[in-house]
Amino acid sequence: MTPAAPTAPADDQRTIYERSQPGRRAFVAPALDVPARPLDELLPARLRRSAPARLPEVSEPELVRHYHRLSKRNFDLDTGFYPLGSCTMKHNPKLHERVAALPGNARLHPLQDERRAQGALELMWNLQEALGEIAGLPHVSLQPSAGSHGELAGVLLTRAYHEDRGEHRTKVLTPDTAHGTNPATVTMAGYEVVKVGTNADGGVDVDDLRAKADEQVACLMLTNPSTLGLFDPNIAEIAEIVHGVGATLYYDGANLNAIMGITRPGDMGFDIVHFNLHKSFTQPHGGGGPGAGPIAVSERIEPYLPRPQVIRREDDEGAAFLLDEERPKSIGKLRGFQGNYGVFVRSYAYIRSLGAEGLREASEVAVLNANYLLALLKRAGVAEYLPVAYDRLCMHEFVLSGAPMKRELGIRTLDLAKRLLDFGVHPPTVYFPLLVDEALLIEPTETETKETLERFAEIVAAILREAAEDPEIARNAPYSTPVRRLDEARAAKQPVIRQPL
Amino acid sequence: MSTYTSATDADRRAMLDAIGVASVEELFADVPAALRLGRPLALPAGMAEQEVYEHLKELAGRNVSCEDEISFLGAGMYDHYVPSLIDTLTSRSEFLTPYTPYQPEISQGGLQVMFEYQTAISELTGLPVSNASVYEGPSAVGAAAYLAKLTNGRPRVLASRGVHPHSRETLTTLARGYGQTVEEVPLRDGATDLEALTAALSDDVSAVVLQQPNFLGAVEDVAALTAAAKAVGAIVICACDPIPLGVLEPPGAQGVDIAVGEGQTLGNRLDFGGPSFGFFAAAQEHIRKLPGRIAGETVDVDGKRGFVLTLQTREQHIRREKATSNICTAQALNALAGVVYLGWLGRQGLVELGELLLQRTAYAREALCAIEGVEPLHEQPVVREFALRLPGVDVDAVVERLAAEGINAGYRLGRTYPEHADGLLVALTERRTRAQIDRFAEALAGALAAERGAAPAGVGA
User: Fold this and answer.
1) How far apart are CA B400 and CA B422, in angstroms?
2) CA distance B107 to chain A (A)
3) Looking at the structure, do residues B446 and B301 belong to the same domain, yes or no?
4) CB-CB neighbors (< 8 A) of B311 in chain A
5) Which of B29, B89, B105 is the closest to A68 by Cβ?
6) Residues B335 and B293 reside in one and the same domain
7) Res. B460: pLDDT tops 50
8) Chain B window 173-202: which residues touch A at a Cβ cutoff of 8 Å?
9) Structural domains of chain B, count
């Protein structure tokens, strides 16, 4: 007799709230070691909570098992190739977790007296110096929490700079290839977005820029290499146009991984740069943060930097590091305390591990890996269906268009991405940048091996061959993942964003 | 030097051949010669892992952390115990190393964590909708005021002087960008002055910002303040310390529209100020204007339960300049620690922890105020933090004397409240025992006596 098929619902689909049983617990409060007083004496009843928060009631073993099992429903960088364009998914060195967890870092209170936080302040100062050197701009604020927060800092600095000179400008220019955070930031900072076009080589359309650059323009936000993975050789001319109308030039550092030690935004003429420490500088991305978005600026922007700044002061007893709050022209604070220090520890450890030579090598190999992968994809017969959007050497990433694939094979970029999941690789960024039809933005990073790139090229070629025979396979992919294609329209139309209890 | 790369000389030759160039240099042909750095970066040479570890350990060793002293320092971040299971779970590569879940089929773990987190924050605050995290507490206040601006377009924001100074400063910085002005509502006996608030209110007020408990530790009468603000149609934003919400009436039950706050105390380390997370919860009507990521439940093609990022038409990658916020990367890993911590505390534990804090804080407040030369700064109810006055002595010098005895006495209010130059803000967590409180009281009495008998005020120890 065959055993009956299991009928109970899959245990791995339950939430922690659905595992809750009244009376179960993990937490044991420390003993009450002071005389107990009636609660009414301590907190009037009308201010007290009348119904407890319906948090789960589970034991420690159940809690650990639940989240451990949830973790196994994630794909991650330590498991496999993650060529997510513009996100720089490079290896996260394990040393960094160890040093960040040292009690002198992990249990250091942010308001500790500066004299008793000298190690932390020195680390921050050293990191400021290093980032300033990498950017080619002398002054660094570590405060912003992520890239888009750094962008906001940059645009607010721009506003402060112009207003200090008695100018009230209204517009910020962004290329049509820009990350979505750029235009969103511009609106939050109270400016109007004006788009600048892209030329046939994938760079800024200089004529369009010249036509739009006027005295109302506060800033041009640019990333170079661009989101197409191309270095804009006209950057000096672009800087001249922007500076010619008195505007600032802002560098979105999302693509810094291509140029460390090779060329510097400051030398290209940029006034303000943000870094994504969770991209080029190995802070693990955590499934959506934490990151950090320090900024580096030129002399003329320095007076407006956020408070506080870490400064170094030399006296008879040696060097001391201080948090300088006395910055009369500062835009103020962008967040609490001094920034995401735990991220600074990791990125500082990375910079000290690699040094000047290692950082340059990282960028060189990132660019080498991207070009090799591009060459492999061309050679594998992929180019016929997935041509590169701009056919030239790329920097650390490149963009393919899935338009011919859609036309000839009947599968979209989305289908290719979903089919890749069945092969155990994370798909590239899809449908970005917006100006390439059916775009795939591929960034292999320097920490991947040649063999990994070769395997990826083979997988893509295999999926295209498979689609030529039966496009339904890709159209219905994936098959081997914890869940299959999800109904996103339903989630948006009837939002269920918390567990009903 | 560590590299984390694997391209051997043989690899490089083969790869360059395949590309069709002779050298790596050629790959950078688009970078104009004039813009090449042409020298190595002026940075120290790279080091082996062992050497980097020693260097970082040496730096960390020069900090005095809560591991090294008995700390009563709070003022926005608190030395709560972080249970071991959080280290275990947050260090799993599957949580630590993925990007934002753009591919939901292979990100169900992270997405379900977000969904469970949103549920926990909703329960904690008594508000129906929560996002998946923002950066940290003070910028969450700024993000909430931006939502108010998008909703009613009014020009003024009123913030209680009891709101954390960093939150008020952040709010002012951000509001200058989106075109609102921030005005302060004064305190009376340590709590927001209802009369002054009422006098300042009019129909051009976009939002009123409160903090519970406020920066001086006082429990505010949020319901009364909220009622006044709502009379002119202002949106009420309340920044909450999450742990006291175990014993305090939640903002959602007091008419608050948006509850935000610093999430550090929920299972996150101090880390010298970050990374932690900010939480952001709101009334239902604001669901399509929330900033940041939101996870939602749905089904897959086989009808199996699953989770996705949802309501994305709010977000920068879709709406660009019309987005409700520019936030992209937030604090997912820290929010994971938050939901695991709340699960560890559980329904009863959150209340028990809050009640323990109430009892020990009352004990400490009484013990310290019994010392000659110590007065309460206000008489309001408190949960985990309270403000004292040390009239007639140099507070800095007293704090230094205590530091020499291995006790961090707390936050000198004169740093940000000139009107309380003799003020000291003392915070407790469940790690501070009665024995430590007694030791603190004894040391404080000694320091005050010594200070009064020693040099005139202004000359530090």
Assistant:
1) 14
2) 4
3) no
4) 492, 495, 497
5) B89
6) yes
7) no
8) 173-174, 176-179
9) 3
According to the model, what pLDDT value does residue B313 have?
87
**Domain identity same for B221 and B239:** yes
Residue B51 domain boundaries: 9-58
Chain B residues touching residue A421 (CB < 8 angstroms): 103, 105-106
Check CB contact of B172 with chain A, cutoff 8 Å. yes
What region, left, alpha or beta, does residue B283 occupy, with left being phi > 0 and alpha being psi -120 to 50 degrees?
A: beta
The size of the A-B interface in CB pairs under 8 A is 724
* pLDDT tens for each residue of B264-292: 999 999 999 999 999 999 999 999 999 99
Q: Taking CB atoms and an 8 Å cutoff, what residues of chain B touch A13?
A: 304-305
The pLDDT of residue A289 is: 96
pLDDT the model gives residue A9:
52
Give yes or no: residues B91 and B122 share one domain. yes
Task: Kindly report, residue by residue over A199-249, the tens digit of the pLDDT.
Answer: 998 899 999 999 999 999 999 999 999 989 999 999 999 999 999 999 999
Closest B-chain CA to A114: B63
Indicate the residue of B16, B310, B321 with minimum beta-carbon distance to A184.
B321
* Per-residue pLDDT, A286: 98
pTM of the model: 0.97
Asked if the structure places residue B1 within a domain, the reply is: no
Distance CA A49, CA A28 (A): 21
CATH 3.40.640.10 residue ranges of chain A are 95-353
pLDDT tens for residues A137-168? Answer: 999 999 999 999 999 999 999 999 999 999 99
What's residue B456's pLDDT? Answer: 52
Residue B64 lies in a domain: no
**Strand, coil or helix: what is A433?**
coil
The stretches of B48-134 forming alpha helices (DSSP H) are 49-60, 84-90, 93-96, 108-125
Domain end (from B316, B341, B366):
B341
Same domain, yes or no: B250 and B136: yes
Distance from CA of B153 to the nearest CA of A (A): 13
Residue A355 has which token pair?
């040094």
Q: What is the CATH number of domain A95-353?
A: 3.40.640.10
Closest to A295 (Cα-Cα) out of A92, A126, A146 = A146
Centre a 10 Å sphere on the Cβ of residue A9 and count the other Cβ atoms it contains: 11
A233 and B32: CB-CB below 8 Å?
yes
In the structure, what pLDDT confidence band is assigned to residue A268 with cuts at 50, 70 and 90?
Answer: very high
Question: Which ipTM was obtained for this model?
Answer: 0.97
* Over residues B74-87, mean pLDDT: 98
Query: Any idea which fold A356-475 has?
Result: Aspartate Aminotransferase, domain 1 (3.90.1150)
Which of B108, B139, B355 has the CB atom closest to A334's CB atom? Answer: B139
Q: How far is CA B389 from CA A54, B212, B381, in A?
A: 39, 21, 16
Q: Which are the contacts of B446, defined by CB distance < 8 A and separation ≥ 6?
A: B401
CATH 3.90.1150.10 segments of chain A: 356-475
In chain B, residues with a C-beta closer than 8 Å to the C-beta of A445 are none
CB-nearest partner of A339 from B66, B273, B287? B273
Inter-residue contact B343 to A14 (CB < 8 Å)? no
- Residue B239 sits in the same domain as residue B307: yes
B173 with A82: Cβ contact below 8 A = no
Considering the domain boundaries, does residue B443 fall inside one?
yes
